[in-house]
Amino acid sequence: MRAGQHNPLICRLLVPPLCLGALVLAGSCGLTESRVALLWTDRPEIALYASYFNSSQDEYTVEVRYLESPSGELSAQLSSQLSALTSSAQRPDIVAASWLKSASIMSLFSPMDGMMQQGNIAAEAFYPRLLAQGRLEEKQYLLPVSFNLPALIFARDQGELLSSAFIISLEEIQELGGAYNRETRGAWSQMGFSPVWDQEFLYIIAALFDSAFREASPLAWDAPAIEEAVSYTRDWISAINKSVEAGDDFVFKYFYEPVEKLTISGRILFSYKQSADFFTLTEEERGSLGFRWIAGPGTIPISEGITYLGICKYGQAPGAAAAFVQWFFQEDTQRQFLESGKQYRINENTFGIAGGFSALKTVTERIFPQYYPGLLGHMPPEEYLSPPAILPGNWTVLKERIVLPYLYERIHDGAETASLDRRLAEWIRLNRD
């Protein structure tokens, strides 16, 4: 799309033109700079937002390239001494993606402190702990875009059993789950909850025990905390559901339907969903369900893969990049994203802003409930939101192939399984270039 063109699907969604002449990105102005910015992303929704920006003014254009792993591409370019970044016409001006927070990748971005000091973007508008993770050596290289939270869902008529309108603890899940269990002829016919129904839930338990998975060479963790989490989970299952095998038998008999349907029918009391998955269930299903954020003492663990945005040092369109970023992080702009999602039924397939809650506090706390009424009275307390540590760019692979299978097998087999160190070393050996 060229500057000035209007996408017919969104031609009615126009935002007031920016005072583009006043936008300055320090040290990047040039008479020959391009007015077309290239944006890399792993969030398909960003392409739609770029089309809105292009329709809102005729000074700049943002073109979007979708990549499975923008962070991986950036890492590859770093390993080749930036040759691709400094010579290719396809180098990005903006990147909006997950896994950008390592120090090496941050070095490819321009600090945005000047833009924020001029008042074009307000630091206080963001959730502070999310904003802090985009800082390196006292400079703001990345701005948070969106995030997700772990939720436990239940049939709406069971909500009165819960002690809080916002959160639910592991201890309360155990207590209510155990009281819900029903046995018929020596086997469970109704079960409250089991931690092994979803391997992601096992990881949440480990996170709440401060397992502290973090970027190293390539990964580090707190081994005693993981042992404590494993022991806690095994004791939970033994005390509440008799054994892992009894829970597996229940799954074999009844888990031929999605967990949300089993929850609504009453076969189970609780099931796990990430916020993005819960809020893209059908309206009928969400109307039959309630939810609480899974929490530890004073903490709700934000899901990994938080989307961040940065302006690249070596881009060819710094003015266009600055214009887009300043436009994007405005409350009115994101309100129109949500309004468009409702109007065109985009929110049936994608949640919120770029697939999650907005990192802008007022958007999430005041505007989201207007489009997701189920959030009314259930917004997560700001002080509880705890982002994960900085994780390696290939974390999703490490988690899926090493961490989650390890936790699952430790719960099933106790100590009779290969250690996490050994699994990681073997994976590295097999995946060397």
Short description:
With 433 residues, the protein is of the alpha/beta class. It is built from 18 helices and 18 strands.
> CATH superfamily of the largest domain, called what?
Periplasmic binding protein-like II
Strand content: 15-25%
Which architecture name of the largest domain does CATH use? 3-Layer(aba) Sandwich
The largest β sheet comes out as:
6 strands, mixed
Mean pLDDT: 89
General form: globular
The side-by-side strand order for the widest beta sheet comes to: 2-1-3-16-6-17
Instruction: State the low-pLDDT regions, or none.
Output: 1-30
Task: Give structural notes.
This protein is an alpha/beta fold. It folds into two domains: 201 residues, D-Maltodextrin-Binding Protein, domain 2 (3-Layer(aba) Sandwich); 189 residues, D-Maltodextrin-Binding Protein, domain 2 (3-Layer(aba) Sandwich). Helix content is 40%, strand content 15%. The protein has 18 helices and 18 strands. β11 and β12 form a beta hairpin. α8 packs across α9, α9 crosses α17 and α17 crosses α18. The longest helix is centred in the middle third of the chain and has 19 residues. It is globular.
